[in-house]
Specification:
The protein is α/β, with parallel strands linked by helices. The protein has a domain of about 160 residues: 3-Layer(aba) Sandwich (Rossmann fold). Strands 3-2-1-4-5-6-7 form a seven-stranded mixed β-sheet, with helices on both faces. α12 links the parallel β4 and β5. α2 crosses α9 and α5 packs parallel to α7. The two termini are about 35 Å apart.
């Protein structure tokens, strides 16, 4: 059995939302502007706007980068501050030693994705991410009208933040900015092609085609609205889709849930997948879900097929990161709501401010 695993980056591998942090360099209102645009992204993604994909926020904020002179170097410097999720380095060492084909499919700008990938030993050829370099390098003298329009938009977006639930007002104002005003000046928002939504699913299909490996023999790991189509793609083809500390946009599309401050527990599922494919994974997940309290009280009661020796030793020494596993595939709507609540609680602990973003 070939072993392939696809990781989203922001959430499962690094808690930082790189674009959010970079936007803060544009001024004291940068975070507020990003949050409003992220909200707008969620709204129009869920309504199924044609030619728009979840995560295109990273294209929408580029005019603000241009206004404030944000460079590739700025993005790199922000990325250098990014932490790695607990247990990720251990997990990647194990997967690499076991000859898994590891891919990162990320909405992140390449400066961030390549930086985190390097820290985890994933080569650039195995990282699919968003290229913003050309746009930042080739910027010409910006027309005064463009600069004035973006500056005015900043002021109005800050005002929109005071009423984030007024989705109609947000959509009307930002539709006008991104799809009327800027195009009228010859600026195409979608020059920056963000790897999110359907483009992540496309990447999975393309990799499977190039390698000749079956999607049913793959695991996908994601946590947010930009990942749900990738998770759905792998689950639909009979593979394992794991939502890690996910939100309400991602949880319903996975067949397995893992909520934890430490991602090394994912290795339990990878180990089960190698032994017996999807059936073995779902059996292990169900046993954890049904017996979590017993397992937590005495890790030595965990059956050998539900844990690895390394993970047993880890949780015996400390219990701060004891995981929640969920069989989402068999969960009814009420149970899914309970699972989402657990995931959100852990998500906020792990990702802090970035956890509230879609």
């Amino acid at each position: 059995m070939e072993k392939t695993i696809f990781f989203d980056l922001e959430g499962p591998l690094s808690p930082q939302d790189n674009a959010y942090e970079v936007m803060k360099l544009t001024g004291e209102e940068g975070a507020v502007i990003f949050e409003v645009i992220s909200k707008y992204d969620d709204i129009i993604s869920l309504e199924g706007r044609e030619d728009y994909e979840p995560g295109d926020t990273l294209a929408l904020i580029v005019p603000f980068f241009l206004l404030h002179g944000i460079t590739e170097g700025d993005i790199k410097r922000v990325s250098e501050r990014a932490k790695i999720v607990e247990g990720a380095e251990y997990l990647f060492r194990k997967l690499q030693a076991e000859n898994w084909d590891i891919y990162i499919i990320s909405t992140s700008y390449e400066q961030h994705a390549y930086n985190v990938g390097r820290k985890l030993g994933v080569p650039p050829n195995n990282i699919i991410c968003t290229n913003i370099s050309k746009t930042l390098r080739e910027k010409k003298a910006l027309p005064k009208k463009f600069l004035h329009t973006i500056k005015k938009a900043e002021e109005e977006i800050v005002e929109l933040y005071s009423d984030l639930e007024n989705t109609e007002l947000i959509v009307n104002r930002l539709d006008d900015l991104f799809f009327t005003q800027l195009p009228s000046m010859g600026y195409d928002i979608f020059t920056t092609r963000v790897i999110g939504g359907e483009r992540k699913a496309e990447a999975v299909r393309q990799i499977a085609k190039e390698t000749g490996e079956k999607i049913s023999d793959a695991i996908a790991v994601g946590d947010s609205i930009t990942d749900y189509k990738m998770l759905k793609e792998v689950a639909t083809h009979g593979g394992i889709s794991v939502v890690f500390n996910g939100n309400e946009y991602a949880v319903p599309y996975a067949n397995v849930g893992l909520a934890s401050g430490d991602i090394r527990f994912l290795h339990i599922l990878c180990d089960a997948f190698v032994r017996g494919g999807k059936g073995e994974v779902m059996e292990v997940v169900t046993k954890w879900e049904e017996n979590r309290e017993v397992f937590e009280k005495n890790p030595f009661d965990i059956p050998d097929n539900c844990i690895t020796a390394d993970v047993r030793a880890f949780i015996t020494k400390q219990k701060k990161s004891f995981p929640y596993f969920h069989n989402i595939e068999h969960a009814d709507e009420r149970r899914k709501e309970e699972i989402i609540k657990i995931h959100k609680q852990v998500r906020m602990q792990v990702r802090a401010d970035a956890g509230k973003l879609g």
